[in-house]
């Protein structure tokens, strides 16, 4: 188990485990961006890359990251879903409203606001 510390210019939560930076201080790591700024994208074509995802959602706002989740056993194979983070919640919500059930690279994608990861009993924290 490890704790993630973030840089915080005002040091108000410096050293607190799981603290998040201010919304304008995003450092490029998916776990540091508030969930309300992130969307889940499902039913992706197996050939979709992070760059494809970033380019597609770029018209809806300032994309801070785009990540296609890869299989653990075969890191070259997509699991068919990913996450996109935006500069603010309004851009994320706009992308959900405009893109859910739209076609992207030959597949009708599902787009929802991202939810916090649920800890399963068989996973270590």
From TrEMBL:
Residues covered by region (Disordered): 1-29
Q: Which InterPro entries match?
A: Nucleotide-bd_a/b_plait_sf, RBD_domain_sf, RRM_dom, SLIRP/GR-RBP-like
Q: Listed GO molecular functions? A: RNA binding
Please report the name of this protein according to its UniProt entry.
RRM domain-containing protein
Record's keyword terms, sorted: RNA-binding
Q: Cite the Pfam families for this sequence.
A: RRM_1
Q: What is the top-level taxon of the source organism?
A: Eukaryota
**What SUPFAM superfamilies does this protein map onto?**
RNA-binding domain, RBD
Asked if the record carries the keyword RNA-binding, the reply is: yes
Instruction: Give residue ranges for domain RRM.
Output: 37-116
Which PROSITE patterns does the record associate with it? RRM
Query: Bias category Polar residues: which stretches?
Result: 1-28
**Organism for this UniProt entry:** Guillardia theta (strain CCMP2712)
**What SMART domains does this protein's entry cite?**
RRM (SM00360)
């Amino acid at each position: 188990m490890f704790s993630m510390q973030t840089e915080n210019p005002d040091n108000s939560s410096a050293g607190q485990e799981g603290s998040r930076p201010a919304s304008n201080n995003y450092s490029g790591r998916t776990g540091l961006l508030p969930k309300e700024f992130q969307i889940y994208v499902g039913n992706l074509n197996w050939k979709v890359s992070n760059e494809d995802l970033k380019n597609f959602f770029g018209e809806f706002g300032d994309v801070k990251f785009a990540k296609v989740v890869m299989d653990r056993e075969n890191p070259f194979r997509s699991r068919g879903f990913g996450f996109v983070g935006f500069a603010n919640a309004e851009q994320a919500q706009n992308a959900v409203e405009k893109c859910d059930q739209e076609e992207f690279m030959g597949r009708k994608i599902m787009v929802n606001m991202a939810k916090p990861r649920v800890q399963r009993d068989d996973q270590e924290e």
